[in-house]
């Protein structure tokens, strides 16, 4: 594998599965927030920023609690300025996708009511 001896197939599968599950849950949560609570939460960009902040704090706390350096979530890597410069468009595109997703959920049509009160 490209990630070296420390990367096992089940770790990759678990990371991809976790990402898919959490991403799907966030989309459903955002859809509920922006459609059913839309009048109470009029700022989708703030919601996006807050979600990113909570994720960052969670990752830093999880990383601080790991005792063994090889199990750290955030590992130091050697990176040159040219590589970092090449990654800026990718980072901006990813953040833009998240922000635009929440903006589109804010203006999307409302689904059928969660409960029928007839």
Query: Helix content range of the residues, please?
Result: 55-70%
Shape: globular
Average pLDDT figure? 75
What's the number of structural domains? 1
Q: Quaternary arrangement of the chains shown? A: single chain
N-to-C order of helices and strands: HHH
Strand content bin? under 5%
**What's the total count of β strands?**
0
**Backbone structural class:** mainly alpha
- Taking all Cα atoms into account, the compactness measure Rg is 19 Å
The end-to-end span amounts to 58 Å
Low-confidence stretches: none
Helical stretch tally: 3
Largest sheet: none
Describe this structure in words.
The protein is an all-alpha fold. The chain has one domain. It is built from three helices and no strands. It has helices at residues 9-36, 44-64, 81-107. The longest helix is centred in the first third of the chain and has 28 residues, at 9-36. The chain is globular and about 45 Å long.
